[in-house]
Specification:
2 domains; alpha/beta; 305 residues; single chain; Rossmann fold; 14 strands
Length: 305
């Protein structure tokens, strides 16, 4: 619900004009075409992904949504975000706080923020990516273009790609292994497919996937009876906790099941707990590098950083 004060402020016809520097560029994005400043200085990021991608580009936003289930930031970005204003939650940005920051560019996400696009656009030039999934590399390139840092964006992506190539070479024949992904959330567990953020990391390296996960799409709910579908050479498990310990209890229940204990991957001791923040929640290039760190540890490889 937008307050009367905010509605009044957003109705001022000169607001956008005053916020816009003289030099601007057309940016085509998920909601259309928008004039953005040639050199934006006060950027607000409305997703965890956009926040860490800006940091990877060497840009500290003036405002960012709170990291999911954090207080207020994920550990891997907290030092860099000291002094940055929290502008609400990713699924519920605070428009009044955003307005108070006087941004000259807002980066958002159509799937998350389509309903408030007009209000955001009345505050400052606003551009959206389509979604947050395995297309995180394309999103990074888009953010880099939006802030007029395309060369830097290309460098950041090349460093990731070079790391992937080094890891793939170090793995040798192990790159042919099938690696599964399961995410525990209280009452609704998911197997993650190729178009998820985590699935994209595995596919970039060249790993195979268990047959049930080797398909397009983000993820699908998986019930206890479908545990055998998780079997492969390695299995990564992560839990999204909301404060009540429900996801941890869910994981414990599953791993105590005879179906789980009968998995060949479990018998081999090749089930690995990894952080949900890294493999599912953060979604940006910095998390991608942390995921690569995990792969190196799991396979006993030297660091490729």
């Amino acid at each position: 619900m937008v307050s009367r004060r905010l509605v009044t402020l957003l109705s001022v016809p000169l607001l956008l004009a005053l916020a816009m520097p003289a030099l601007a560029r057309d940016i085509t994005h998920a909601m259309g075409v928008t004039d953005v400043p040639e050199k934006p200085l006060r950027i607000v990021a409305l997703t965890n992904e956009a926040t860490e991608d800006l940091l990877a580009l060497g840009i500290v936003p003036v405002g960012a949504v709170r990291s999911a289930n954090a207080d207020p930031w994920f550990d891997h970005v907290s030092e860099m975000l000291k002094g940055v204003t929290v502008v609400g939650e990713e699924l519920a940005p605070n428009l009044e706080v955003i307005l108070s920051l006087e941004p000259d560019l807002i980066l958002g996400n159509k799937k998350r923020h389509e309903d408030i696009y007009e209000q955001l656009s009345a505050i400052a030039p606003t551009v959206f990516v389509e979604n947050i999934t395995g297309q995180w590399r394309q999103n990074l390139a888009f953010y880099a273009d939006a802030v007029n840092q395309t060369e830097k964006g290309a460098e950041v992506l090349k460093y990731y790609e070079d790391r992937v190539a080094r890891i793939k070479a170090s793995l040798g024949d192990q790159v042919n292994e099938k690696v599964g992904l399961v995410r525990f959330i209280a009452g609704q567990n998911y197997a993650y497919n190729n178009d998820s953020f985590s699935g994209s990391i595995l596919r970039d390296i060249g790993f195979g996937r268990p047959a049930a996960q080797d398909k397009a799409g983000l993820a699908e709910k998986i019930t206890l009876e479908r545990i055998p579908e998780l079997d492969g050479d390695r299995l990564l498990r992560f839990s999204y906790e909301t404060g009540d310990g429900g996801a941890t209890k869910e994981a414990e229940t599953w791993m105590a099941s005879p179906l789980w204990e009968n998995l060949s991957v479990a018998k081999a001791g090749h089930v690995y707990p990894v952080f949900d923040t890294v493999w599912a929640t953060a979604g940006g290039v910095m998390a991608a590098h942390l995921a690569l760190d995990d792969i190196e540890k799991i396979y006993g490889l030297a660091s490729s950083r």
